[in-house]
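G., the chain you wanted modeled:
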Amino acid sequence: MTAKKAAVFVFAVFMLWSFTGLADTGDKDAEDNITFIVFGDTRVATPGAPIPEAYKRIVEESNIINPDFIFHTGDVIFGYGDSENQLKTEYSSVGEVNAISRAKIYYVPGNHDYNGPLVIKFFKLLTGQNQDYFSFDYKGVGFIVLNTEIPGQVGKVTDKQLEWFKQELERRKNYRTIFVFMHRPLFLPGKKYLSKHGEPMGAKKGFPSEQNRVELVQLMLKYKVDGVFAGHLHLYDRTDYKGIPFVTVGGGGATFSAPVERGGFFHYMIVTVRGDKIKLDLMEPYQLSVETKTYSKDGKSYGEALIHNLHGDMDKGMIPIRGLKFTLPKGNYTAKAEGVVSDAAMLDAAESVLDLDEYGPDHEAQREKIKATMAKYLKPTIFKIEPNEQNKDMVDVWVRLDMPGTFPVRVIVGPSEGQ
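Predicted structure as C-alpha cells:
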C-alpha cells in the first residue's frame, strides 16, 4: 500500500468512527434513573505513541455498565505541533478504541484538542460538536459543557460564553439536577485555603484569573449545581465545597501528574441519579469484569454471566450494570441471580470486607444480614429483547442488575415458565 493510500485509509477509518462510534444506542431506562460515566485525559505522551491500554479498558468496562452516555473531560490526542497526517493517524487510533462504545460520548474540549485552527477543525470533525460549548437535557437533568480552551480566552469562561452559561443555569433553575463539565478544574489538590475573595484558592495552571474562577463557583452555588467534573491534571481529586463536589477525573491513560497516594492512578467515575439521590463511584480499571456464555440444557437455551466487582464492600461498592447481553433463540425469557460464594465463605471473608461493628458479634446474625444484603441486590430484570441483526431466528436479551461489591455473582437467563 502506498503512503498516499495508507493516509486515505486511515482517514476513512477515522471518518467512519466519527459517525458511528457516537451513535445513541437507545438503551434507556423507562424510569427516571440516569447513569453516566466520566473520564478523561486519555492522550498519548508524544505524537505517534500507541493508545494507552487503560483507555481501551475503560471503554470496555463502560460497555458492561452500559450508561446512558459518557463524558470525556478532554485531551483525547497529543495535538500540539501535529501535522494533518499526524492528526489523522492519532484520531484513527482513538477511533478504533471508541468505535466499540455502546454509549454516546460527549467531549469536553481540552488544551491538547483545541490549540489551533487545524487541531480544532479535527476535534469538531471527530465529535460532531460544531459549537465551542453546548448543553442538553435528559429526564429532567441539565448537562452543561463549558470550554476553557477557546483561543484568546484560554483558562477562562468569559464574555459570550459566560453570559450563555448564566442563561443556561437560569433556564434550569427548577431542574432536579444540574451537572457541569469543563477541562480545567476550579480547585486543585491541596489548595483548600481561602483567597482574598473568601473562596478556596485555585491555581494559575487551572484558571489564571482568580476573579473569573470565583465568579464561576458563585454561579454554581447560586443555581445549586450538583456536580462539576474536570480533567487537565492527570490524577483524581475531589473538593466538596458548600455541598458541591468538584471532581477532577484525569486518569484515563495519560502520564500521571502525581504519585498514587495523591491521586495518580488510572480511573473513571460512574454517576447514578435515582430520584433526588446522586451517587458517585470512583472506579479503577480491572476491578470489573464479566464472562458470558450460552448453552443448551434439556432442549432449552440459556445464557449465563459471571460478574466480578471488586469495587468497595458489598453494600457501598454497589454499581449499576445493564450491559449484559445474551443472543438466544426467539422466545420469552426471565433472569435470576445467585451469589457464587457460599454464605459461610462470605462470613469468613467478612472481617476484611465488611464493617463488623455494623454486623455485630453474633455470627448467625451476621450471616443473615449478609444474606439479606445480597438478596437486596440479586434481582436482575430483563429490560429489552430485540431482534439479532445477524440471525433472524435469534434475539438479543439485555439484563440489568445492581451489582454488589466484593463477592462474585452469577446471572442466568432462561426460558419463561410454560415455554
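The chain has a mean pLDDT of 86.

Shout if anything looks off.
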